[in-house]
Structures are given as C-alpha cells and as structure tokens.
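S.,

Sequence below, as promised.
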Amino acid sequence: MNILVVDDEPAILKALQTILTLDGHTVHATVSPHEAIETLRAADTPFDLTITDQTMPSMSGPELARAVKAVAPSMPIVLLTGVLLTGMPGVSGPDRPPCIDYVLQKPIRLAELRKFMSDFAQRVTAEAGAR
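The prediction came back faster than expected:
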C-alpha cells in the first residue's frame, strides 16, 4: 500500500515510517499537514491510506482529514490520538466526524498497528473483489 503519514513528533513519525516500510508498504512521512496536502495533490501514484496525528501545531488531525477528503474523497483516514478515546467529544464514538474513518489510540503498539493494517488490507481486497 501507498501510505501518507503525518505526525508533528519526528520520533513517532520515524517509527511509523520504519514499521510500515518494513512491512512492505510505501510510505511518505511528513511533520507538516500542509506538505501532506501538497504531496497528495502532486502524487503520481494515489495514496491508499492517510494516517494522521490528532494534535499538531498548524492544523488538527480532523482539519487535515477534511482537507485530504477535499482532494481525495474516498481516501481512508486513520486518526492517531494520545487522548483517551472516551474523553474525545466530537472525535470518537457516534459524533466522530465523517472525515475520520478509523481512530487508533497512542501510544500504538506494534502488534496493534500490524493487526489494523492487516484488517484494512483485507477490507480493501474484499471491496475490490465485490466490484
């Protein structure tokens, strides 16, 4: 898969990029939400998934998700958050914005990330087969 990853914390960004790359994915990683949008617009190969942090200085994860959906409406968005999911009005549960497809808790464990990616790949394959 071709994955766009955005997190303002360089150590987390590098860890995600390393893990996803070792698992066979192509990853474009950036600390800048604005660069992510420009990368998405300029990409020769479409991205299959965007993974973004919830809280960043220049743009929140949901704001980035809305901008990504404006460019690529069918792009699945994963929101990573260090806030307890039960304490996130407007992001988790029934009031999650429609621009956010999945929410994962930080710190994310390696096994959890790999399980999510495996489940996601299976969903994508099943949807492609149903068409």
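The first strand starts at residue 2 and ends at 6.

Coffee later?
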